[in-house]
Amino acid sequence: MDYPTLKVIWWVLVGFLLICFAIMDGHDMGVGTLLPFVGRNDVERRVVINTVGPHWDGNQVWFVTSGGAIFAAWPLVYATAFSGFYWAMLAVLWALFFRPVGFDYRSKIDNAVWRSTWDWGLFIGGAVPPMIFGVAFGNLLQGVPFVFDDNLVSTYSGSFWQLLNPFALLAGVVSSAMITFHGGVYLAHRTEGAIQQRAMGSARWSGLILLASFTLAGIWLASGIEGYRITSVVDPAAMANPLGKTVVRHAGAWLDNYRHWPLTLLVPALVYLATPMTFVVLKARRTGLAFILSSLALTGVIGTAGVSMFPFIMPSSSSPVSSLTVWDAVSSQKTLFIMLVAALIFVPIIIAYTRWCYRVMAGKVTVAFIEKNKHSTY
Amino acid sequence: MTDSLVDLSRLQFAVTALYHFLFVPLTLGMVWILVVMESVYVMTGKQVYQDMTRFWGKLFGINFALGVTTGITMEFQFGTNWAYYSHYVGDIFGAPLAIEGLMAFFLESTFIGLFFFGWDRLSRPKHLMVTLLMALGTNLSALWILIANGWMQNPVGAAFNPTTMRMELVDFGALLFNPDAQAKFVHTVSAGYVTASTFVLAISSWYLLKGKDVEFAKRSFRVASAFGLASALSVIVLGDESGYTVGEAQQTKLAAMEAMWDTEPAPASFNLIAAPNEKTEKNDWAVRIPYVMGLIGTRSTTTLIPGIHQIKDKNRQRILSGVEAVRALEQVRHDPADQEARRMLELHKADLGFGLLLKPYVRNFDQITPELLQKAVDSTIPRVFPMFWSFRIMVALGFLILTLFVASFISTLQGRCENKRWLLKWALLMLPAPWLACEFGWFVAEYGRQPWTIYGVLPTHLSVSTLTSDSLMGSLAGFVGFYTVLLVVEMVLMVKFARQGPGSLGTGRYDNELAHAH
């Protein structure tokens, strides 16, 4: 398979992995975010936790694998983003610390303070990572201040606080609302009674915030944010060398792809179609279908960010020539091919056994179930 | 890169990796012990074996949670703290990490949920299959991580590309079947099996000493002593001593950990104990056993094992050749059409990494003095004293554990283990031993690789991210803080449930059934 095709396939594949991460780990992070608000007493909270209890760990591997895939396919992106966003990445990591221990340790000691502490830990582990990922995407869309020297050593010149600019915070709201929305829908699917009512209410609220913030971010992106554009001739088959091109910043450049390929407008349109439809089917208690629709909505959100920036992955605001793109931040042809083969073999297998596990554990988690199995559930 | 940044980055990696490695070995072994116990349950239908699987599974889960927590740190850290490393070798090193996720980590993490929560929803054979897949995933995970680590020790199947300014994959098969990785895998998972066996043996012994849940404890003791004996033999016999003749990194390590300053006529003698002196570069005194080192290290009577001085002489030549490579590379980066520079680079490419070793001592390669060269040459050998003694502590603990398992296996065959209080006390006392051995082993393997992150290819001091020392001190403080709290919490739970014993399952069949415990 030729190098340019592999480069594009890997852009699609990383996008696919990130979307799987948002759908799978996203719903249990959304559940974590809603936990302290939807569960009003200990047993209700255990109901909420146990809707994702058997699955959160497997879901989190979408995150680990996305990271591994970026390392293998786009090593320069991995290196530059993780070291540049040093404190933001540590905040994500430290927030994630609360999840394994929160899930596994919380119900092992019968003490109100202990349990409430871990409930808030699970809240942090669910709420902080999506928010920071949103903020990170908000910064990617504006460009990030980093520069490569001749040996491709990257130096990041921004600070943590600069990441928290208004547009990036808005992107953080989009991401948080999206994950909470998705978690609320999942919770409605797996619970009943009062908990389900509250979950549906949260899903509606966060769905509306998602639509509003996504719209606002879109308008802002089209009118106020400078995009990036490659001005030199690109040889997609060339060996990866990010310093071998010229780049300019240009207002409205992030709309280029939608102009060239109008069909791509379906990606943002998906958000406006799927989100309201989620509300409708949720009202009709078709919660399984609602989960598929909310998954489509977040596919639209992530896809919009990707399509707007293509072929850029990580533009540099301080040295546009250092910007990382799908053409020049990639691994060698051989590695991309081997990794593609590995992904084509294993991703379908993973989806198959994950599906089986969800089927085994299917059905509503109820208060009665928790009270009957308090020694064996979370 | 400032020295303090490099030192702090190393310290942070060492702290987080050693900490992560407190939880990994137990996980690697416990999964198989659970498979054994559950298999007996499925075959015999005896309830006690299901209870054993569930109780030891509970302790396994408490440990597993921290293994997951601290494992993500390791993946993050390559990007956050070792950015140039990630760029320079990501083309090769990233692949096994990503495949680990796809092939192994998904498997273990998905099925662990069903292991804990699927008892009432799955038939017995299906649940056993779930446990087996979880065990397989856990161990495959170790395989891919050690393929990645093996490549750091013995970087086969890759070549430097001056256009992309990085190492690129040439031969994926060589990466997979790196003899270094194979030896490491067998040694590391066996060590994990020993750790888990000691854990079950020690806690079961404690129940027997207290006379509680005796039938449960006796059966657990039996499983642990059989599995432990086989594993302890494996860890020693198939220890990675056999891998030490492959590749130069391992030869350097071997010379340092055996305090072999000079090449001896084959087969070399073995320094049982010695007082290595870094200043005079010889041993002040040593207790030597003739021939043994040569026989163990090379499995032959004629192969030489290079000593430190001979390795240094060779490295001096490689550094000088590497200087030419670095100069040629600079010219090629400046003018890609310079054919003469390309020819020179091609000629000296294999020593490029050795040339880079000079970077912390001299910026301009025209100013290299004999003293600076000597400094770089000296830096190619890790310090002998810590290597020599860490290795010996690990091996001594290994043999001590083996004796314990021989004694406990014999007594369990005789069916009298509950009466031998000295054995039970000894087993309990040995509880920390495998963890110490694992940590010392990790130290020998990774400290012994210095001054490289990728042996012969990329020096450690060039591998770090461009960060401030302040950032590193902040993050290090954060890790130490979080990890201390997590360890305390984990130990509290572990001790609580180990003390309570199978009563914590709430089945009504055991001692210490506490109504309020979950």
Provide structural commentary.
The complex is a heterodimer of chains A (378) and B (518). Chain A is mainly alpha-helical. Chain A has helices at residues 3-38, 42-52, 56-73, 75-84, 86-105, 112-142, 166-190, 193-223, 256-260, 266-283, 287-309, 333-360, 367-372, and strands at 146-148, 154-156, 226-230, 247-251, 312-314, 324-325. Chain A has one domain (3-372). Chain A is built from 13 helices and six strands. A two-stranded antiparallel sheet of chain A has the order 1-2. In chain A, strands 3-4 form a two-stranded antiparallel sheet. In chain A, helix 1 (3-38) runs antiparallel to helix 6, helix 1 packs across helix 11 (287-309) and helix 7 runs antiparallel to helix 8. The longest helix of chain A is centred in the N-terminal third of the chain and has 36 residues, at 3-38. The radius of gyration of chain A is 21 Å and the shape is globular. The termini of chain A are far apart. The relative contact order of chain A is 0.15. In chain B, strands 1-2 form a two-stranded antiparallel ribbon. Chain B has a two-stranded antiparallel ribbon with strand order 3-4. A two-stranded antiparallel sheet of chain B has the order 5-6. Chain B has helices spanning 3-20, 24-44, 47-81, 83-117, 124-153, 172-176, 179-210, 214-237, 248-257, 292-298, 308-334, 339-348, 352-356, 370-379, 384-413, 421-429, 433-447, 460-463, 469-500, and strands at 158-161, 166-169, 270-277, 282-289, 452-454, 458-459. Helices cover 69% and strands 6% of the residues of chain B. Chain B has a domain at 193-246 and 397-447. Chain B is built from 19 helices and six strands.
Kindly name the structural category of chain A: mainly alpha
Individual helix count of chain B? 19
- State the major sheet of chain B: 2 strands, antiparallel
How widely separated are the two ends of chain B? 52 Å
| Low-confidence regions of chain B | none
Oligomerization state: heterodimer
Helical fraction of chain B:
55-70%
Low-confidence stretches of chain A: none
Radius of gyration of chain B: 25 Å
The count of strands of chain B amounts to: 6
* Secondary-structure content class of chain B: mainly alpha
Total of DSSP H or I helical runs spanning 4+ residues of chain A: 13
Q: What is the mean predicted local confidence, pLDDT of chain B?
A: 92
Helix share bin of chain A: 55-70%
Strand content of chain A: 5-15%
Domain tally of chain A: 1
